[in-house]
Description:
With 799 residues, the chain is of the alpha/beta class. It folds into four domains: 2-84, no CATH class; 94-212, no CATH class; 229-503, Rossmann fold; 519-798, no CATH class. The chain contains 30 helices and 21 strands. It has a nine-stranded mixed sheet, with helices on both faces. Strands 1-2-3-4 form a four-stranded mixed sheet. Strand 1, helix 1 (11-16) and strand 2 (25-29) form a beta-alpha-beta unit. It is globular. The termini are far apart. Residues 177-181 and 763-785 have low confidence and may be disordered.
Amino acid sequence: MATIQVPAGDVRSEVVSCRELGAPLVIAITPQTLELWTQHGNNAELAEQIPHEKAEAFFRKRAGDLAPEAVFRAKTWGRLDQQFQLSFVDAGLMPVVEREIGERLTGLIERVVHNLRRSLWPRKSDVSVESGHWLLKSVFWLLAAKILQDKRVPGFITLDFGNVEDVFAKVARHYDSRDSGSRSIDIVNPRQQRALEAAADEIHRFSHLGHVTTESLAHVYESALITSETRAALGTHSTPQYLVDYLVWKLAPWIQEIPEDERDVFEPACGHAAFLVAAMRLLKELLPPERQADRKQYLRKHLHGVEIDSFAVEIARLSLTLADIPNPNGWDLVCSDMFTGSLLTNKAQQASVLLGNPPFEDFSRQDREGYSARGAAVAHINKTAEVLSQVLPQLRMRGVFGFVVPQGILYGTNASDLRHLLCEQFELKEICLFPDKVFSFSDADSAILMGRRVRAPRNLHAVSYRRVREWDMDAFRLDYSVSTWRNVSQQSICSSSQAEFVLPDLPEVWRYTTSLPHLQEFAEVGEGLSYRSSLSKKILRSSAEPFPVAVRGFMRLGRSLQTHAHPPEVWLNISPEVMQPARLGADRLPQILLNHARASRGPWRIKAIIDREGHAFTNNFNAIRPRDERVSLEFLWALLNSPLANAFAYTHARSRHNLPGILERMPMPAASKQLTDEITRQVVEYHRTAKGQSSSASEKLLLMAVRLDALVLKAYDLPPQTERQLLDLFAGHRRVGVPYRLDRYFPAEFEPRLHLYEYLSAAFKGSTADSILAAHRTFESPEVSEALRRATEDFEEDE
């Protein structure tokens, strides 16, 4: 909350100028009234005007809402629990402000580091690793001193930035910790002294930083203090604050059940200590009033972290210090490789709360060999799996955990023992899946796992299973809305032999199709050829022109490929000496080819084409080949391009690819010969029309496509409500690989639950084709409406 005095003029502009303070409520004192303004993004709104004589009564009445702890709860707990929400607190304001401040600080650090480096080492090549560390640490300590001074921390208020040695000495004393990382910075010659004085002057003259938050520092760390090489080597990906808050405050009720003197929090791979800072805020909130005087020692006794990156530890120290102003450091942050010795297990044994976002990357072969040579062999390929497998067995009984993990942890074979451990010794609270691009410098698909240690989990214990799709991420950031949510029993999640923690969306659809045969019973499914990685660059793999041992084939799909066409032909080398074994791409049989990489980020993932000639093809494609001559290529083409096949691939996907192992489990309809023959006939007609290139082809193809989709779904015979759930998945997502626009099957306001073929037939409740088409807002052009009119007439004739 901020208070400003506005003698005259534009009050709104004065309020907006306070935006970077991040105050959700600004009280403007004008000559006549007090004005209460709420801040929202780049805008401010007048909420209330209070005459001066009524101000005291107003504040007395609203004291509970305006108390600092109430505003804090509204910013954090309010997104999860409505009882803590306040009308004047915009949960989306602070993340924007913090990022903007972080970007300004990043620009400052980059500029100062650049100037300091040029003063001392004119050539970049002259900067050693040790010198680079000194350079960054010096600039960051100057920034830390500026922040502590602007926040009026005792010992820094009158600090003279012209005396760089004194600045470093005061920061070192404030950082005084249990490790040696807080030693002051050496200045070895007058040249360094002059360069650092210039850097200190530039930082000191920077605008006021009393409002800097730990979240802004996280942006500085990830954007300015970590190189791309370090990020790749250590798997560093800063956790967004909204994700940290979500995880910690979801666990808050369980943490509250732990006796206050046993609430020991450990964050492995703590980075800039995002989870420790959030845990500190929670521990302060839960500490009873009579113990607040002991808060400094209490927090330092109960918060623990380990991190290999020394710059991350610098940020972590300052972040924790800023969250506990004005107390000095003293935090238990260990700068070490957590995979060596017994560091992880020892720290976990002392903890009742485990929080974190461990590195997502796999160990390299060199990593594994190095740890093995030091007597610290790792048991898992993935670093997150290794961290969890070391710390979870050590967690105290009734201790809780919450981790951000790569989605591979939920289903990967190498992590199956970890999942069995969770099933047998833990009570799972929530599994929440996220799309890629959650992290600024990583595109990994991620998930959240939460639970607590118990002696024997109850089989019927309900686990909250949530998923956030890409297009719903903004809503999640704002108020934690999710795309899908359901409660499932822990027993159902743990029932498979591998205990896979992956549940596809549209459960009613897949439950109804459980008894149907799978695609693999009717067709062979496999990936295209790939070439040996050890091949000499002189060996020709493909060419636009013929060459010995080459045949006509397909190398890539291309974004513009449509499902009635073929990719560009090339000549592919199919010599056994150059290819990886056990692939389908070289044997040249009639087949359906479809994209290996997803065709879009939405539910339309598949573009299937008919390859009657049987081209060779690379692993950019999968092939589906009928085992039974009664299953035509045309019928398979209709199935694989249908909403059901796309929904199956989308909801069962475990990567960005259409994997053969997933596709071969796709349910096949028990359709009559009459229906399959009709589908085959209409596919032939669709291709003939598509290749005709007439001016009205797109309208006709839209008509045919909707009719084909209706026929395929009729073959599956889903209940109307279930079929509607399936088709509504595609609402708002444009179909790919087609020369027409289709982004929904039913108008958004159309409530009756009908089969698509019934909707097209106009045979329900005495409705006419005209009334149905009038309601179908997707197809607005006269030509398309006329095409759909003919579709309804066709269905009426069928009946």
